[in-house]
Design goal:
It is a single chain. By secondary structure, this protein is α+β, with helices and mostly antiparallel strands. It is built from five helices and five strands; from the N terminus they run H-E-H-H-H-E-E-H-E-E. Strands 1, 2, 3, 4 and 5 form a five-stranded mixed beta sheet that branches. A hairpin with a 2-residue loop joins strand 4 and strand 5. It is elongated, with a radius of gyration of 16 Å. It is a single-pass membrane protein.
Amino acid sequence: MKKLLLIFAILCSGFSFAQGIILSQENAAEKGITPIWPKCDRSRQTPAQCFDNKLRNHIIANFEYPDIALAEGLEGTVTVEFIVDKKGKIEVLEVTGAHRYLQREAIRIIRAIPKMEPGKWGNKPIAIAYTVPITFIKP
């Protein structure tokens, strides 16, 4: 709950245009609210399962170990906090962990997530916050 309030406070103070409700992934899942990844509306999986699978596959398919990080022997886990806003676009909120070269790659991967149908509370689109760890292990 504290994380949700912190995210909400940051968005309201820093981005006056981002007004509205923001749910954490956990709260959204409890309420059965999730953004719809492209083509997940035709899936046999629940929207939340499809979202999770598509996100995992997206990270794997777009993952590129930065050359400079390989040369310097950098490894670690980068945690990216982002929202799928009420227009279905991705906004990165915070990136922590590992080296900045690895953080940049994690941001690139998350920003490459396709636009999707936003989560809805009733008929009103809402933003949903997610936290994703991306682990970099030298090949």
